[in-house]
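Hello everyone,

My group is preparing for a crystallization screen and wants a predicted model to guide construct design. The compound we'll soak is flavin mononucleotide. Before spending weeks at the bench, it would help to have a computed complex in hand. I've included the protein sequence and the ligand's SMILES below. Output in structure-token form would be ideal because that's what our pipeline reads.
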Amino acid sequence: MKKLFASLTLLLASAGAAYAADNKILVAVFSRADENYSVGIIEKGNTMVLAEMIAEKTGGELFEIKPAKPYPKDYKTTTEIAKREQNENARPALLNDKDISGYDTIFLGYPNWWGDMPMIIYTFLESHDFSGKTVIPFCTHGGSGLSGTEGTLRRRLSKSRLMKGLAMSGTTAQNNRDETRERVNEWLDGLGF
Ligand SMILES: Cc1cc2nc3c(=O)[nH]c(=O)nc-3n(C[C@H](O)[C@H](O)[C@H](O)COP(=O)(O)O)c2cc1C
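Reply:
Good plan to model first. Here are the tokens for the complex, ready for your pipeline.
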């Protein structure tokens, strides 16, 4: 009886581990360097800082979503272009793409742009079949958090399993790597990674 209980416990423990070793993970991220909100001119985008930490901790593969036409280096012009793209419900072309079919879990990272995901994220979403995959959003922002983007993703990816996203201030991500890592790790631990 004792033996049966022990093996049952073991079985349950392994079933309870949220992610098996063969869970293939992709960390897909769009992030913009250069002049940015409240951080000056940066070499690495704020969301990219998070993406690298996530890839490192989960063993996931990092994929940078890049627009065919790069955004300008200055912040203000970028905000104007982004606003126009949002108003026009544009789908900016991808410079590169990734076959996501072999991945079970996709972390999807983006900055909050005008209370939404940058339109290139919509291009990426519509270019792939996310059915049956686990999708986990993360974003950096200047105060608005994830805005409504988790809900938008839930509606758009109705055949995926959406998990709790992470929102982090872009300034924290850029200027306080220790705090950022701590919060990223805490979030990932909570998700079972
Ligand atoms: C085009 C644009 C629009 C933005 N709109 C918002 C916004 O609506 N709310 C917000 O909190 N931050 C906004 N921000 C600030 C960014 O979300 C923040 O700087 C973020 O960390 C940038 O991430 P990245 O360096 O990975 O691109 C905006 C920034 C840009 C460039």
